[in-house]
């Protein structure tokens, strides 16, 4: 395994990059003005975090690649984002359910990273935590509000939960990269975070009057890059197009 | 800015002596640069005009998210993507302050939204033009926000308090938008041949529509005279357009770009640039709904509103349940 820390940092940066991109697709199309503002704000936070994580990844790698090179010049198989974050937006309910499931994992993961033995990682986690705490508060409130809203909103939210649940498990799969990070005190073991995630998610789903799916089957292949969904390639054709079409240009 | 062709009462401006005592007292407050606040008495015409003007401005901010949102997912660097997101977020925020300012005049945001979606209320003609290359993100910031600032800076002194205060905040953000737009243009104009071509093409396409943003000449318009007497319009359209041209031409020269106007030249005598009027037939076509993107813009807003109905209803239903539960607890 080459450079586990680089792998680890691209996982963090690719999650925020891919989710930030997805959320930004909503710009100008949200159900209500306040949501337009909140979605743009969330996307902005995530892109800001991407700059920090991928910037550090490039530095750790030491091959002269910066955050932009990593974001715009890698192909699908080099992306290390979770399958959850590349899922299409669907309706607003699916977007907010995806956000909630990610935030519930992300906020706890970042909280642990604040104690990282690597001070650069701890610093990024600390900065990100402030933003992600707010993301979680908002996505929880929205899931509760829509789950426990009208009959239609309830049905839509349950459908979103059922659709996305198979992508939850991947967040808690530990592999050799995680093991290397745990060994150096850099990051926690993802598997160890499942209990707190379950408690938080169960509480929110109960308040939302939603039923947690019984089957915990988990799709995998995002964080290792082994098998992304078909959606990521399409996203990259859009995200990377200018950089790829005009490789000599600086922007 | 973003308010064009606002029709006020067509009666012409009354002199103080022609006014009844209430109206006269109102006009005297305006003349003394006093701010009018929501609970103060105001003439119906003043109220109606302001609702139209502020509403049109708010709608422009909302529809204005679309041409820029068009490039967020294709922004060429993370920094540019973040800046563009922040800008579009600011615009939605401006829409929000302005709707709040309009609501103080007794109209609801939902009503104004319905009027936008049905086509009854307008938004600025500029947002009916497409954004075709990355350089358009530069041109929109530089020219469109630049033109908007020309009108909005004086409106910070407008007579209606909530509008003036909203404008103070908006102006701060708009000037940042304009700077970042110019920054994109600099990068493009000093970049590769393809980038320079994109920059020139963007200027070619946005120059005329930017000049149209100020509206047709209103020197002899009774509507404008009334709005100016009420201090809800601070300068004539031609005055602002000239100011915009005078400011922008040297900026284009600095970029090494050519303003698409063969008649453009410095007039020593006037101390201003002489320039050609934009194509006003095109302007009226756009206002009638025949701009390149009118249909798409309104379709996008209607789709967002229609598809968001279940969300708004769901959140309202939940809020009502929470209130009922709290009332139940209080009663026990």
TrEMBL record, chain A:
InterPro entries: Aromatic_CoA_ox/epox, Ferritin-like, Ferritin-like_SF, PaaA_PaaC, PaaC. GO terms for biological process: phenylacetate catabolic process. One of its GO terms (cellular component) is cytosol. It comes from the Bacteria. This is Phenylacetate-CoA oxygenase subunit PaaC. It comes from Sulfitobacter sabulilitoris.
From TrEMBL, chain B:
Signal peptide: none annotated. One of its GO terms (molecular function) is phenylacetyl-CoA 1,2-epoxidase activity. One of its GO terms (cellular component) is cytosol. Its EC number is 1.14.13.149. Keywords: Oxidoreductase. Gene3D superfamilies: 1.20.1260.10. This is 1,2-phenylacetyl-CoA epoxidase subunit A. The lineage of its organism: Bacteria, Pseudomonadati, Pseudomonadota, Alphaproteobacteria, Rhodobacterales.
